[in-house]
Amino acid sequence: MGRFQIAVFPGDGIGHEVMAPTLALLKKLEAGIGGFQLDFQSYEAGAGLYQRTGVALPEEAMAAAARADAILLGAMGLPNVRYPDGTEVQPHLDMREKFALYAGIRPVRIMAGAPTPLRDQRAADVDCVLVRESTEGLFASRSMTRREGDAVFDTMKISRAVSERLFDAAFKLAARRAASRGRKPRVTCVDKANVIPSLAYFRTLFLEAAKKHPEIEADCIYVDATALRLVRSPWEFDVLVTENMFGDILSDLGAALIGGMGMAPSADIGDEHAIFQPCHGTAPDIAGKGLANPTAMLLSAAMMLDWLGDRHGNAALKRAGRAFTEAVEAAFAPGDLVSVESGGKAGTGEIVGRVTAALAERVPA
After folding, report:
1. Domain boundary among 257, 286, 311
2. For 158-177, what is each residue's pLDDT tens digit?
3. How many other CB atoms sit within 10 Å of the CB of residue 252?
4. Among 279, 238, 232, which residue's Cα sits nearest to residue 255?
5. Residue 236 exposure: Cα atoms within 13 Å on the Cβ side
6. Structural domain contains residue 264
7. What DSSP character marks residue 140?
8. For residues 256 and 296, what is the distance between their CA atoms, to the nearest angstrom?
9. Sign of CA dihedral 351, 256, 180, 308
């Protein structure tokens, strides 16, 4: 039996509310499927801790995350808690950089029965993945800002080493998806190569990588055109790979298509470490009211199981990941489960209850 250490960071706001039921369901999967053991160790970090102590991410918590087999994170940050430079306290960004988590995986898939603003019948075929570079790009300016008088200059960083690893991950992901979906794989580079030299370099590196994968279709598109097509015809995309800031923006657009931020899971993956967390923020306006949609947190945990299964060759973990995802899908399939964020009445408890019941049909008690 594989035993795995999971560093848990509930974070701020609704982070605790979506994390607790996720851990409980993971334990149900562990008991019902067998073949693995998840040892959870929780650590405090985030804006609330910074507000009280002046430290957002304690050294011992970072060290524990470095030792863990995977990191499970709720949500961090509060709008009114900021560093002296005016930016929000978001220590998960420090984790991405510290652990070189260069591949941000953001699935965009509309589940049957889940709400979507798209009315075209082809919306049922929306199933793409945004691969966001998560360690440099415009976000690198966090440590490279320059001030000259009344002007502030932020620097974008695009490096060959990181970009090559990012593109390699995107092409490998496309190949895996093709094998399971029966569709021809395609990777689309999203950039602004017509205006910004660093992104022209990004495209050049992408085209170099594409030559190493002739069996996979590769194309390029500007980010503004991508935003338009993600609304008009998102079913045309497979794997999109892009710079950090563009990925941050487009992943929110993708979340809107699949029912909201509460439906959008994510993973930030490097060569040795990975963080799994929902795309949504801490939503302090609804914290403590039982209104948070836990779906993104549940699906992020399912992604963690699948990643651990691949990394350690553990079939039981992969089976658990599939069962978890299928249970979430089954909960929404009837079409009557609509979260508060999507205009319905289903809060945290009802959604978790539906998923728990669906899981019980798939996994022995």
Report:
1. 257
2. 999 999 999 999 999 999 99
3. 15
4. 279
5. 11
6. no
7. G
8. 13
9. negative
